[in-house]
Amino acid sequence: AATLTQRLLGMLGHAKPPATVQAVSNLSVEIRAGEVLGLVGESGCGKSTLARMVAGVHAASSGTALYRGQPVAVQQGARVVKTTTKVQMIFQDPYASLNPRHRIDRIVGEGPFTHGLVDKANLDDHVSRAMQRAGIDPAYRFRYPHQFSGGQRQRIGIARALGMQPEFLVCDEAVAALDVSLQAQVLNLFMQLRADHNLTYLFVSHDLGVVKHISDRVAVMYLGRLVELAPAAEIFTRPNHPYTQALLANMLTLNLRRRRFSAIKGEIPSPLNPPVGCHFHPRCPHAMERCMREVPVFRELAPGHSSACHLGDD
Ligand code: SF4
Ligand code: MG
């Protein structure tokens, strides 16, 4: 239980005014040093908001993301200022997250240089090493992002994160833009990096199939709430929450190329006006009268396996 902890308490996210969306609420989870925590849910469930808070890119309106007991970011006026370089984020879209006017050596080298992790004399070596670790030939460091394929650009994004000598990577749909064979390669790279550098991951995906292969534990979110958290093997063999069960059934029925959650009955309700009681009740095959009034408590069913559902309460 020593070492790294991430604790997210009562985090609230905001959408554009005038409407305020509670994107994530009353959520608390610890990520253990060296583990991969998979975070899954349909789009709009708040997982990206959560990922950004954990990575110190967004601030929570209340609650904190802590890294080794210290806030990952602090609010300074309108700005969110990160307080650690040890937590780095890898984004979904390698095209959007790389400045098209900057060469790769600058994209990868700027952060470490600015933060004093490397001096000018060693910068080129530092960049080359980060690229090598990410599986990109360092000979390409004088090229621009448009000269690379989508898969290579994602590796550049990874090299940029590695250049910061992170301990903890927050990956938000980091392989979602890639086709299936490239997805496998990049997932293997993440696992290799984890083994080589003892990295910890929060791995966010809408795709349970992606999360399955790399996670030690899996957290399932629905409309801003954590609905289930368990060791990966448990989630896939003994899912408790009806939403997790639906995701899993859906994963198994769809073919590998087009795994989506859309086959779950009904639309995701608007986060502006979430259903009262259990948020999942309009889509749940087991919904009872009580589910429409009472928010189910997130409770431990077995050691390390928690779920928020009224089923089996009595
Ligand atoms: Fe379904 Fe009720 Fe459980 Fe919600 S609390 S998942 S509606 S059975
Ligand atoms: Mg998202």
Q: What features would you describe in this structure?
A:
One of its GO terms (biological process) is peptide transport. It comes from Verminephrobacter eiseniae (strain EF01-2). Pfam families: ABC_tran, oligo_HPY. The protein has 314 residues and is α/β, with parallel strands linked by helices. The protein folds into 2 domains: 1-86 and 166-265, P-loop containing nucleotide triphosphate hydrolases (Rossmann fold, 3-Layer(aba) Sandwich), CATH 3.40.50.300; 95-153, no CATH class. Helices cover 30% and strands 17% of the residues. The chain is built from 9 helices and 12 strands. It has helices spanning 47-54, 94-97, 104-114, 120-133, 150-163, 180-197, 208-214, 232-237, 242-253; strands at residues 36-40, 66-67, 70-71, 73-76, 79-82, 87-90, 168-172, 200-205, 217-222, 225-231, 299-302, 305-307. It has an 8-stranded mixed beta sheet, with helices on both faces. It has a two-stranded antiparallel sheet with strand order 2-3. Strands 4-5 form a two-stranded antiparallel ribbon. α6 links the parallel β7 and β8. α3 packs across α4 and α4 packs across α5. The longest helix is centred in the middle third of the chain and has 18 residues, at 180-197. It starts with 35 loop residues before the first strand and ends in a 7-residue tail after the last strand. Residues 1-19 have low confidence and may be disordered.
